[in-house]
Design goal:
This protein is α+β, with helices and mostly antiparallel strands. It has one domain (about 10-150): SH3 type barrels, CATH 2.30.30.220. It contains three helices and eight strands. The protein has helices at about 10-30, 55-60, 135-140, and strands at about 40-45, 65-70, 70-75, 80-90, 90-100, 100-105, 110-115, 145. The strands form two sheets. A five-stranded mixed beta sheet has the order 2-1-6-7-8, with helices on one face. A three-stranded antiparallel beta sheet has the order 3-4-5. A hairpin with a 2-residue loop joins strand 4 and strand 5 (about 90-100).
Length: about 160
């Protein structure tokens, strides 16, 4: 039947694309960020396993974007999540973010970005955007952005 995916290709593609930020963060954790590279990571703050301070959660109850460029430390990357310490208003905050919580990943230095559908929710009509004060000022990167929905089979009733 049209629309069926018994092998789970949508899930396989989603998992493969989530490996891109995982590997990029691993390289940054071991070697630092080269040249003009920096990362925008947008994630759902209410996703299970996300650990941020109550103050940050109150400020960003749905999603937030962090930028890893100059002022980050203690970046640790595992199979399922990453953790990093960032400064917010001069105060260090430790964040723990499962890769399944990611909505977007971008490296403006490479003109590269990915957008993800939440793994546990059906597709939405509107794409997530990079949106916090820092990211809004810088604007989203232009260039190669891969939307995972491009890999989904569409059943248009034909």
């Amino acid at each position: 039947m049209a629309g069926e995916d018994p092998l789970g290709y949508a899930r396989l593609v989603r998992e493969a694309l989530r490996d891109v930020p995982r590997q990029a963060l691993r390289l940054a954790a071991s070697d630092g960020l080269p040249g003009g590279h920096h990362f925008y990571l947008t994630f759902r703050t209410s996703h299970p396993g996300v650990a941020i301070s109550p103050g940050l959660h109150a400020r960003y109850p749905d999603q937030m974007t962090i930028i890893l460029q100059h002022q980050y430390r203690d970046l640790a990357v595992g199979e399922e999540a990453f953790s990093v310490t960032l400064l917010f208003g001069g105060t260090p905050e430790r964040l723990h973010v499962p890769f399944a919580a990611l909505l977007a990943f971008a490296d403006p230095g490479a003109r590269f970005g990915l957008r993800f559908e939440p793994a546990d929710e059906p597709p939405v009509a509107e794409e997530p955007t990079l949106a916090t004060e820092s990211a809004a000022a810088a604007g989203p990167p232009s260039g190669n952005v891969v939307d995972i929905r491009a890999f989904r089979r569409r059943d248009d009733g034909d």
